[in-house]
Write a sequence for this structure.
């Protein structure tokens, strides 16, 4: 299997690194660690789901334009759900 970075796995890793940065900076400023740990764990799970979906898409399809288009649809849907507070 040829592996190429796609939009979905780059976004999943970037999302987790962003949350990890927020966790580390809030911990250094003395904020509550218990909620930060839960949020970091949930963001790790969300990133793993994104990477899993990307892995399945790369196994099913060989066309990277199609994989990126489906990844963009997943990302837009996730942002829409997050912003509208479903």
């Amino acid at each position: 299997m040829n592996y190429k970075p796609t939009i979905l796995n780059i976004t999943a890793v970037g999302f987790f690194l962003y949350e990890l940065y927020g966790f580390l900076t809030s911990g250094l400023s003395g904020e509550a660690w218990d909620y930060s740990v839960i949020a970091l764990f949930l963001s790790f799970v969300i990133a793993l789901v994104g990477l899993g979906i990307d892995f399945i898409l790369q196994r099913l399809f060989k066309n990277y334009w199609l994989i990126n288009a489906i990844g963009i649809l997943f990302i837009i849907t996730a942002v829409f759900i997050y912003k509208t507070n479903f």
